[in-house]
Amino acid sequence: MAAKQKHHKVLGETIRSYRKSANLSQEKLAEKSDLHHNYIGELERGEKAATIDSILKISKALGIKVRDLVNDL
């Protein structure tokens, strides 16, 4: 379980980093990716596991490749 949670945290930190680099708030990223802003926050804090669908939506909204988000996992 601990390793799984670590992956959630790493992915969340990566999402946050790319979001901030794009000068987007969690709310704006949520809007662009058609996800709820609470879900974005939970992902960034490593509290939720991202689905492949949400990873695709987030990467598209950020204008990056999926591999950029998951490279460090």
Can you put this structure into words, describing what you see?
The chain is an all-alpha fold and 73 residues long. The chain has one domain: 434 Repressor (Amino-terminal Domain). Helices cover 71% and strands 0% of the residues. It is built from five helices and no strands. Helix 2 crosses helix 4. The longest helix has 20 residues.
Topology:
Blueprint: H1 2-21, H2 26-33, H3 37-44, H4 52-62, H5 66-70
Helix pairs in contact: 2-3, 2-4
CATH topology: 434 Repressor (Amino-terminal Domain)
Number of strands: 0
* Low-pLDDT segments: none
**Helix percent band:** over 70%
CATH domain class = Mainly Alpha
How would you sum up the global shape? globular
Distance between the termini: 15 Å
β content, as a range? under 5%
Structural class: mainly alpha
Describe the structure concisely.
This protein has 73 residues and is mainly α.
Features:
0% strand, 71% helix, 434 Repressor (Amino-terminal Domain), 5 helices, globular, 73 residues, mainly alpha
